[in-house]
């Protein structure tokens, strides 16, 4: 495979791989490092890759191994194996939806965020886009920290359902 | 499945989904919402692949300029050549031990061992006769030979084709065949260095004086004190000692000194066959032994000795 062909693969899969890595690690730098290393490892082992299988899934497997390797180095405990499998299952579902309908999860998320309004959108903006912690958000909204956590949890579920609806059930026209 | 199990399963599923959304949201924050390609990150990945590929081909050390590469290559070639030549040099025997009496030890780079007839002598070998009655005879490939009497020690070497005997203790009796031009054999004592082209001489040297006797050929000898040089013909001898101004050869007679048989010890060597001493011609000897404590005599069966 030429460098140019591999670059196309990188373009196609890097954001999904980064999203997967960011599910595992808090730091964006760690996630970028994991994904970069995974792409380099994948390139080095391209001859071992079965082209009949999905490159994204193979790459996620490498990211996952890199993540476990990183935590071993740092003497930290990884998330449970079941949770990792669960996360993989979600991404696999999105992979299939993307293959079937060509609808990228980020595009779906963009659509769903636009649907999210009011206090829910405010919490998402404050927590994710402005990087404000739950305690500060709680102070600002004059609610308890637990309430902010619960609200964020609910928003994630809503967004997940929305994305699934967009990608799998009702693809955007 | 019980209700609790179902709830637990549902909870796990929700947790995985939340993780996925959390990661997706974080990625949107990191890379932006509008584009599905982060070109900067793609460039970074491709650069990483390129660097990794190069790393595989090139070892990670600073690249040297052509000049330094040549210097290093030349140094490596010189080192290897010197090593090989030194190995060949050291692996090559310079002489053989032809006879051994009593305990004689040979110490070389490979260690110390008891000498036996037929044993090869390598460069830088130290040969010692351990008891007063012991002796050893060592013969070079050109037929020159040295006899080491009891309680003596020598170091034999060869430097650029030039024989060298360092008499560390006791004395030696030696015979040198004609040596290659420009490469006289060296007999080194505590205060004496004799350069021998190939002649038949005898030199007795002790604390007070040195006396060179030429058995055949002609020898040039120079005195340390004033650098004066004289030529000594066969059957002549010259005496050098402190306070003696005379420095000219005098005739000697074999019968006066050598009446046959062999005598060793006290630095006096005995000539068994007078005719054999007359074979070498056009020989030179340059010695400096005034006041030195040693003897060196070179001839068919004679005589080089340096005493402590």
- Give average pLDDT of chain A, whole number: 86
Number of helices of chain B: 4
User: Helix/strand/pairing class of chain B, anyone?
Assistant: alpha+beta
Using the alpha-carbon principal axes, give the shape of chain B: elongated
Find the structural class of chain A using helix and strand composition.
mainly alpha
Low-confidence stretches of chain B: 1-13, 57-62, 255-308
Beta content of chain B comes to 25-35%
Average of the residue pLDDT scores of chain B: 68
Provide the helix percentage of chain A: over 70%
Strand tally of chain B: 19
Assess the beta-strand content of chain A as a share of residues. under 5%
From the alpha carbons, calculate the radius of gyration of chain B and give it in angstroms. 39 Å
Unreliably modeled segments of chain A: none
The rounded distance between the terminal residues' Cα atoms of chain B is: 108 Å
Strands in their spatial order, largest beta sheet of chain B: 3-2-5-8-9-11-12-19
> What Rg of chain A is obtained from the alpha carbons, in whole angstroms?
18 Å
Number of discrete helical segments of chain A: 8
**Main pleated-sheet profile of chain B:** 8 strands, mixed
* Assembly level: heterodimer
Order of helices and strands of chain B: HHHEEEEEEEEEEEEEEEEEEHE
Description:
- The complex is a heterodimer of chains A (173) and B (308).
- Chain A is mainly α and 173 residues long.
- Helix content of chain A is 79%, strand content 0%.
- Chain A contains eight helices and no strands.
- Chain A has helices at 3-24, 28-44, 55-74, 81-101, 105-115, 118-129, 134-141, 145-169.
- In chain A, helix 1 (3-24) packs across helix 3 (55-74), helix 2 (28-44) crosses helix 3 (55-74) and helix 3 (55-74) runs antiparallel to helix 4 (81-101).
- Chain B is an alpha+beta fold.
- Chain B contains four helices and 19 strands.
- Chain B has helices at 3-31, 39-57, 66-91, 254-257; strands at 95-101, 104-108, 111-114, 120-121, 125-129, 135-140, 145-148, 153-159, 162-169, 173-175, 185-188, 193-196, 200-205, 210-216, 219-222, 229-232, 236-240, 250-251, 285-288.
- In chain B, strand 15 and strand 16 (229-232) form a beta hairpin.
- Chain B is elongated, with a radius of gyration of 39 Å.
């Amino acid at each position: 495979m030429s460098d140019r062909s591999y670059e196309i693969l990188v373009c196609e899969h890097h954001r999904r791989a980064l999203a997967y890595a960011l599910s595992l690690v808090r730091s964006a730098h760690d996630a970028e490092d994991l994904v970069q290393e995974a792409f380099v490892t994948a390139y080095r082992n391209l001859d071992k890759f079965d082209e009949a299988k999905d490159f994204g899934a193979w790459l996620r497997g490498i990211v996952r191994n890199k993540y476990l390797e990183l935590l071993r180095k740092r003497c930290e405990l990884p998330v449970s194996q079941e949770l990792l499998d669960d996360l993989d299952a979600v991404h696999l579902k999105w992979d299939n939806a993307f293959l079937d309908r060509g609808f990228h999860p980020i595009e779906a998320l963009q659509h769903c965020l636009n649907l999210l309004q009011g206090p829910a959108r405010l919490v998402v903006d404050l927590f994710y886009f402005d990087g404000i912690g739950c305690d500060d958000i709680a102070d600002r909204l004059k609610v308890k920290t637990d309430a902010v956590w619960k609200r964020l949890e609910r928003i994630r579920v809503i967004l997940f359902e929305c994305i699934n609806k967009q990608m799998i059930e009702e693809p955007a026209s | 499945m019980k209700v609790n199990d179902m709830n637990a399963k549902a909870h796990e599923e929700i947790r995985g989904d939340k993780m996925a959304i959390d990661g997706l949201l974080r990625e949107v924050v990191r890379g932006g919402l509008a584009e599905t390609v982060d070109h900067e990150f793609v460039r970074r990945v491709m650069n990483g692949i390129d660097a990794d590929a190069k790393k595989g081909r090139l070892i990670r050390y600073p690249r040297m300029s052509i000049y330094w590469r040549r210097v290093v290559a030349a140094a490596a070639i010189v080192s290897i050549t010197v090593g090989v030549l030194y190995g060949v040099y050291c692996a090559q025997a310079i002489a053989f031990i032809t006879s051994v009496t009593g305990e004689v030890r040979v110490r070389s780079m490979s260690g110390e061992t008891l000498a036996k007839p037929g044993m090869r002598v390598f460069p830088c070998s130290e040969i010692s006769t351990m008891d007063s009655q012991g002796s050893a005879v060592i013969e070079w490939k050109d037929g020159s030979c040295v006899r080491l009497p009891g309680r003596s020690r020598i170091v034999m070497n060869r430097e650029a084709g030039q024989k060298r005997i360092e008499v560390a203790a006791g004395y030696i009796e030696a015979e040198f065949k004609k040596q290659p031009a420009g490469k006289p054999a060296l007999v080194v004592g505590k205060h004496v260095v004799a350069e021998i082209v190939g002649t038949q001489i005898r030199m007795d040297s002790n604390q007070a004086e040195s006396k060179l006797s030429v058995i055949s050929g002609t020898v040039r000898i120079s005195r340390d004190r004033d650098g004066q040089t004289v030529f000594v013909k066969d059957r002549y001898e010259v005496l050098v000692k402190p306070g003696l101004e005379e420095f000219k050869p005098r005739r000697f007679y074999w019968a006066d000194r050598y009446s046959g048989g062999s005598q060793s010890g006290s630095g006096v060597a005995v000539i068994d066959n007078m005719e054999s001493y007359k074979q070498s011609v056009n020989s030179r000897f340059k010695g400096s032994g005034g006041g030195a404590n040693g003897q060196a005599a070179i001839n068919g069966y004679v005589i080089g000795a340096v005493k402590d």
